[in-house]
């Protein structure tokens, strides 16, 4: 990661102008190129996915525990799974925002790279750079596709969490809790699928950063 102060300064300029091009220009003046920003954002997106994976696993544990209810404070049971649902929803939103930021800097980087190909005097160097651009873009496309696939895998789980929370909100009794066993099986299957997609996306992000 680059110096935090430099990023904060550039972010302040960006927020004041609302213009991505101004943001990237200000970062370059601070010695931070788009390629470096891209690596940082891919790393942040990867880390956010790691955290989301853990958040969903913790939520699954909370929802599974509900089916083992043996008596006690029903309001506390509801509060626990509602908190797990809200944590999962926020985690999914954070992942989406991180991927959006990766795509934003990637578009700027590739557009600049494409444009600067015309500035070469050497045909061989231009050709080499063009080939590198194609390879990097192909690698990036593969990575961001996996990121979006992992992102999409969170939605079914969040929806199942929401359904259980809403059901218990309006049917807060032991019999209603017992009826959720089948739904928990569905959640377990969806979380397993989510974890698989997340891990594939994280691996692809690591591979992309090693090549960039």
Automatic annotation (TrEMBL):
<dbReference type="InterPro" id="IPR021342">
    <property type="entry name" value="DUF2959"/>
</dbReference>
<keyword id="KW-0175">Coiled coil</keyword>
<keyword id="KW-0732">Signal</keyword>
<protein>
    <submittedName>
        <fullName>DUF2959 family protein</fullName>
    </submittedName>
</protein>
<dbReference type="Pfam" id="PF11172">
    <property type="entry name" value="DUF2959"/>
</dbReference>
<feature type="signal peptide">
    <location>
        <begin position="1"/>
        <end position="21"/>
    </location>
</feature>
<feature type="coiled-coil region">
    <location>
        <begin position="177"/>
        <end position="204"/>
    </location>
</feature>
<feature type="coiled-coil region">
    <location>
        <begin position="32"/>
        <end position="62"/>
    </location>
</feature>
């Amino acid at each position: 990661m680059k110096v935090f102060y430099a990023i904060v300064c550039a972010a302040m300029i960006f927020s004041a102008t609302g213009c991505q091009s101004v943001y990237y220009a200000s970062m370059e003046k601070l010695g931070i190129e788009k390629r470096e920003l891209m690596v940082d954002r891919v790393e942040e997106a990867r880390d956010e996915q790691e955290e989301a994976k853990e958040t969903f696993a913790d939520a699954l544990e909370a929802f599974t525990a509900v089916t083992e209810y043996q008596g006690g404070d029903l309001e506390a049971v509801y509060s626990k799974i509602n908190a797990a649902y809200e944590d999962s929803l926020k985690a999914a939103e954070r992942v989406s925002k991180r991927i959006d930021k990766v795509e934003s800097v990637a578009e700027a980087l590739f557009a600049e790279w494409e444009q600067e190909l015309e500035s070469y005097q050497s045909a061989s160097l231009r050709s080499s750079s063009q080939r590198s651009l194609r390879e990097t873009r192909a690698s990036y496309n593969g990575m961001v596709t996996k990121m979006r696939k992992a992102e999409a895998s969170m939605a079914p789980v969040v929806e199942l969490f929401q359904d259980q929370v809403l059901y218990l909100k309006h049917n807060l009794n032991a019999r209603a809790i017992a009826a959720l066993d089948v739904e928990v099986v569905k959640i377990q299957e969806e979380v397993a699928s989510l974890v698989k997609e997340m891990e594939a996306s994280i691996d692809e992000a690591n591979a992309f950063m090693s090549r960039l």
